[in-house]
Amino acid sequence: MNRGSTIGLAFGLSGFIAGVAVTGMMVVNAPPAKEGFIIAEPAAESLSPRSIPTATLISLEGEPTRKASFDRLALASLTSLFDYEGPDPVEDGTEAPEGAEEIDIAARNDVPVPRRRPTADDLKLASAEAALADPVARMPTVGKTGNWSSEAVNEARVKCEQLLGGLDVEFKVKDSIGRPSGCGIAYPISVSKIAGVAITPPATLNCKMAAALHRWITQVVQPTAKQEFNTRLTGLQNASAYACRLRNNASTGKLSEHALGNALDIADFRFSNRMEASVGSGWSGSIKGLSLASRGDFMKRTRSGACKYFNTVLGPGSDAHHKDHYHLDLMKLRPGRGKYCH
Question: How many separate helices (H) and strands (E) can be counted in the chain?
Fold first, then answer.
């Protein structure tokens, strides 16, 4: 190598070193860049000195989801560059790379998860929760309100839930009957069974009357049947329930409690051993071994016990109109007038 070549090479190396030093100083003194990624635009088909590809800074501030996606892309690129084939740092017990857990969580959160389709049990549970939140929802609605206002019918429905909630009463709701100022029931129910005792035929009553019958049957009639006959009541013969008429079917006078669904006439008791007790004509069926005293005690105890739950109790001996059945009602008591049990 001649002297001229050596001098040229020395000047070239000096220029290169100076350029590197200047570039390093510019990098060190440059202001910190905003967090983001530089995306290069595609180059033109034929590059010319003036058509050099440019780059655009995309800020990811306030967009954590996109940032997490770019983080994953960058991590994947670095992994592929180094071709790391060692053990999984998590499985190996060593610490995972800084930020790996956050990236993994972001990756999972970035993928939408489909909602589970509700099962039949889920729908039943939701229905039960709705019923608990709105107790009236458990009571069927009236089909036709007739001459009753929707407010009056809904008020009766709420009261019915309060009266029958938790009681063993089987019934069907009927359309509203009559009108407020005469015969009628805003929220009538057709009662077919009370605490396992069949009502034949089903009795159309108001809910207050149905609740009183439940208490009388469970607290008086069933215990008496057990003590007197070692049997249980299974049915009651309905002689009259709702009926738009005056008292004792008279042509003049006051409305009967039957006209308000507030009364029930019982003609017959039926028991599990096929025995029947007719209020009007005595006993029939399997009555072998039963004394007249025990039969009479049953009638007396159930009749007197009804006065605890009803305001009027009539039967044989009261008058000619009640010689063959028990009449039970919840007539509203006026001041100074007590219950009438005869």
Answer: 8, 14
